[in-house]
Design goal:
Layout (H helix, E strand, L loop, with lengths): L17 H21 L1 H10 L1 H11 L4 H33 L2 H6 L5 H30 L9 H20 L5 H18 L11 H7 L3 H13 L6 H21 L6
Length: 260
């Protein structure tokens, strides 16, 4: 009597579970990262072209004070991280959505949560590279800084909150050109209407109102404090963590995953 043939063993990518989730997340990260590796100069240009000139514009009218310069550097860091997150991540997501790449990812199959985690890994890496470039610029520009451990979680939570906003807003894009325009405007508009280069108290009244609800204002407060050697940033980190959780939840909910 012949033994019934056994099914061939499938690879771990086809076996549901934590290992598949991690593998899918890393695959999505690689899909995002390969264009970045080929076009690494876009990160450098995105970091240098807009944030650094803004730093020198504000520095030319700011008093010669270490705390003021640290605040300007905090705003520059946020501008650079916001720009890299919105431009690189936002434009890649909208391109994958309207050029059919996202459908290929879905049919791998990859769960939506793994796609978001892989995208967040890519966002964290690109944002970290931008932050490192700008911190190196701070040494060249002669800005006195004494960074503490709070700088790393402040930057990470800022990236997560911005990534959630990008995912949520990009889900409303009706076409590829419109999505690219929206991605280009997100970072610039958020930085302009948020008090990141100056404190909330010195901002105009309208910007003060927006500053109370803007995650970038709390990010600027936390980063400026950590650059000055302070650790009293628990309130700011808590607010950023709440923003990151809410925006990522909304972005995950709105991300079209079975779009026709």
């Amino acid at each position: 009597m012949k033994k019934p043939s056994t099914m061939p063993r499938t690879g771990r990518l086809n076996t549901p579970g934590p290992r598949k989730f991690v593998s899918d997340s890393l695959a999505v990260f690689e899909i995002h990262a390969l264009p970045m590796v080929r076009q690494w100069y876009l990160i450098v240009l995105g970091t240098l072209v807009f944030p650094i000139p803004m730093f020198y514009v504000f520095r030319s009218i700011a008093p010669d004070d270490a705390a003021v310069w640290q605040r300007l550097l905090a705003g520059t860091l946020i501008f650079g991280v916001s720009f890299s997150t919105a431009m690189l991540v936002g434009q890649q997501i909208v391109a994958q959505r309207f050029m059919g790449h996202l459908k290929l990812v879905i049919t791998m199959p990859v769960p939506k949560a793994a796609y978001v985690v892989g995208t967040l890994l890519y966002t964290a890496v690109s944002g970290s590279l931008s932050a490192l470039f700008l911190l190196g610029f701070a040494l060249i520009a002669g800005v006195e800084i004494a960074p503490t451990w709070a700088l790393a979680p402040a930057l990470l939570l800022t990236v997560l909150a911005l990534a959630g906003i990008v995912l949520f807003v990009m889900s409303f894009a009706p076409s590829l050109p419109v999505g690219n325009i929206i991605a280009s405007l997100i970072a610039i508009v958020l930085v302009i209407i948020s008090p990141v280069y100056f404190t909330l108290e010195s901002a105009p009244l309208l910007l003060q109102w927006f500053g109370y609800v803007s995650p970038l204002r709390y990010a600027a407060d936390a980063i400026a404090a950590s650059l000055g050697g302070r650790l009293d940033v628990w309130l700011e980190l808590s607010v950023l963590a709440a923003y990151a959780a809410v925006t990522m939840g909304l972005g995950l909910w709105r991300l079209p995953w079975r779009e026709t």
